[in-house]
Amino acid sequence: MLRFDPSGLRKYTVIFVLLALVGLFSLTSPYFLTTRNITNIISQNTYFVIVAVGLSFVMIGGGIDLSVGYQMSLVSVVTAMLMVIYEQPVWLAIIAGLVLGTLLGLINGIIVTRIRIFPLIATLATSVIFQGISYMISQAKTYRNYPEAFLFITKSKVLGLPFDVFLTLLIVVLASFVYYQTIFGLRVMALGGNEEASRLAGINTRRLRVALYAICGFVVAIGTMVMISKSNTTHSSFGPGTEFIALTAAIVGGISFMGGEGNVPALVAGVFVLAVVGNGMQLAGWGIYPQYIVRGAILLGAVAFDEYQKNARRSRLAKS
Amino acid sequence: MKSDYVVEMRGIGKRFGGIHALKGVDLELRPGEIMGIVGDNGAGKSTLMKILSGAYLADEGEIYVEGRKVHLHNPQDAYNLGIGMIYQDLALFNNLDVARNIFVGREYSRGPLGLMLDKKSMYKKAEELIQELRVDIKSPRLNVARMSGGQRQMVACARAIAFQSKILIMDEPTAALGVTEAGKLLSLIRNLKERGLSILLITQRIPDILAIADRVFVLKGGQRQAVLDVSQVTLDDVVTMIVRGKDPNGINAPSVEFQSFG
Ligand SMILES: Nc1ncnc2c1ncn2[C@@H]1O[C@H](COP(=O)(O)OP(=O)(O)O)[C@@H](O)[C@H]1O
Ligand SMILES: [Mg+2]
Questions:
Q1: Which CATH number belongs to the domain containing residue B185 in this structure?
Q2: pLDDT tens per residue across span A186-241
Q3: The complex's ipTM?
Q4: Which helix or strand (DSSP H or E) is residue B262 part of?
Q5: Suppose A72 and one of A224, A226, A254, B140 were both cysteines; which one would form an S-S bond, judging by CB atoms 3.0 to 4.6 Å apart?
Q6: Does domain A11-311 have CATH number 3.10.20?
Q7: Given A2, A3, A190, which is nearest B93 (Cβ)?
């Protein structure tokens, strides 16, 4: 009854795609494969990777969170204002931001599990609520010039790596560890694979799902710190849009919309597929805007591929 | 307190909205016996067993396990009392391998605070279970999605008995199996009985019951009709009881067409 398992190979498809893209663009532009350009790509994408990892917890558990973009907006505004307007110590502002992010995730989790509405709609709604709160607090103003200690996040080096790159690597390794080596990780996979069976297996599925949204909020808040430290400015419009990149990267990286599947290296590759496509197009002189069209097309293609895989598997199962 | 029964259910009632699925059902299971549970579709068999496995909460009634009154709020409670259930729809995880399917929810842990998964013990124990059950599954690392109905049934079975269950509930385990696989499963059930398990077996295949069960419990319209001694009844007796109920001449006698149970 053993058949060839394409999903085993599929896990790494995205890594081959990334390598192929790198190959392609290094042919079309001599500048693409320079240290400077590659360093740039990595540096610009650390917070996308962090946010995508956060979102992966919700998605592998079979949920979705469209509100991460406005979670970032709200967290960044609060953190920045604490430092710039209220002149609070940097550590306090960071902790407040991380706690706030966790709370926002918790709220999403409670709404999704208690009111039992589709997470897509629920988080779309909370997203708009977070947007409103963010703009009310910030009064749509821009906040800039953070204390030097906060810029440390992107300016300092650890083990020869920029701190944000180091932090991103740490989060990636930690998340992989959680998924593959811990009981919690197995239960996340189980929840995404079959919620009712998880309940029958004695797992408190509701509490687990709430925890996943809270973890997502926490990790997204870390990503937010990196984002605003890098730009040294904050505005309520900073962050929205990230949910799209993270979601697309997740799907491209093989994290199914249905949950229960995914691996972190492929997720990271998913982020860089989008990044490299954007960078390559820019170097080819296409400008910024066509990138949106390409990103949308990539998401459509990835979702279609995901569906196709699911259907193929279903009909295979039906035959056996 | 000692009891003659390993499980006693008293006056179990359950409603789903307007549907009165179970009406004051009593059930007694003797230690080490196989008891068949039969009845038409919708008779309430699965519901009664899910109450015993903690998947559903009864609206009324009491449950005693080895003479002690118990409160089953969730499947974990039942499992801790040694009650394991194989659900009709199997409740497997298609995205996970055999060993993970067996142990999820009751993982072997290691490391600081017991947060880490002890994969080594998990695979070793899964391998042992596979051997013990004489199941034809080549490796506990195989994904269950691509397995046959029989193999999946075996995985569910291994899962239900992995941690010294004393009472095993099986909900129509042979329903989706071919003749050979069903035969294998029946001999496995016999093996389990020899190991001292008490087994509740829901099935539509009356001949299976006559072949391996000690007694058969007949349910109809959410009510207990009879508990028959398998050695003293024929297939026709059981079928008649399923279709007509205990009171064929009384006012409750429903008019139901004859149905064959294959
Ligand atoms: N979760 C549920 N929600 C609503 N009705 C249910 C549910 N489970 C069972 N029922 C109803 O209870 C009755 C008994 O069902 P069930 O126990 O599955 O019967 P059986 O297993 O004997 O075929 C049926 O009328 C069924 O529709
Ligand atoms: Mg049933």
A1: 3.40.50.300
A2: 999 999 999 999 999 989 999 999 999 999 999 999 999 999 999 999 999 999 99
A3: 0.87
A4: none
A5: A224
A6: no
A7: A190
